[in-house]
Specification:
The protein is an alpha/beta fold and 192 residues long. Helix content is 14%, strand content 33%. Strands 4-3-2-1-10-11-12 form a 7-stranded mixed sheet. A hairpin with a 2-residue loop joins strand 10 and strand 11 (157-164).
């Protein structure tokens, strides 16, 4: 299963809709996860033109309801338990503490977050954390091309990527591209 990841679109604002680069990046995905701070449900409608979309409620998603939005979205995919929540700051706290505080103590194999506008992939305590940053306001900078993420999940395999959407003329994209491959990690683990 291929899941497109994005968060913190904050639309409408200076822009009325997402960049065309988002549509290109998500071509062929099976599902889209929006990590919150959607601001208006028409963003989800736009994404639904690409693939079915689920979202977590962000701190800026107030005053409207949508069946695609929950505080936490849980999904079981190929033996992996995936959860998406908007905010787990600071994301560097111990996994057990994050699970207790934000997931009601439930275990997840993959945690997808947003809120920070800063891309991040981390694997620790057998849990993958992915924050795709923001396609609109990377690193909380002004409106410019930012980042999106991709999860590719198969039985015994997870690949996560965060990709830059490009550069906006006169506005540098401050993000970095990130990659994680569980199969490669396991192949390189020392054997007893």
């Amino acid at each position: 299963m291929r899941i497109g990841l994005l968060s913190d679109t904050h639309l409408p604002g200076e822009r009325r809709e997402l960049w065309d680069e988002v549509r290109s990046a998500f071509e062929g995905v099976d599902l889209i996860f929006h990590g919150g701070d959607i601001v208006h449900p028409r963003v989800l409608d736009w994404l639904e033109e690409i693939a079915p979309t689920l979202a977590s409620r962000g701190n800026n998603d107030l005053g409207w309801e949508d069946s695609r939005v929950r505080d936490a979205q849980w999904l079981d995919v190929e033996g992996f338990r995936v959860v998406m929540v908007h905010d787990m700051e600071p994301e560097t706290r111990p996994i057990a503490e994050l699970a207790e505080r934000h997931l009601g103590g439930e275990h997840a194999d993959i945690i997808v977050t947003g809120h920070t506008h800063i891309e991040r992939i981390d694997y620790r305590d057998d849990v993958l954390q992915v924050n795709s940053g923001s396609p609109i306001h990377p690193h909380l900078w002004s409106t410019r091309l930012g980042t999106v993420g991709m999860l590719e999940i198969e039985r015994d395999s997870v690949v996560a990527r965060v990709s830059k959407l490009g550069e906006t003329p006169e506005f540098r994209n401050p993000a970095e591209e990130l990659h994680f491959d569980l199969r490669t990690l396991r192949a390189n683990e020392p054997r007893d």
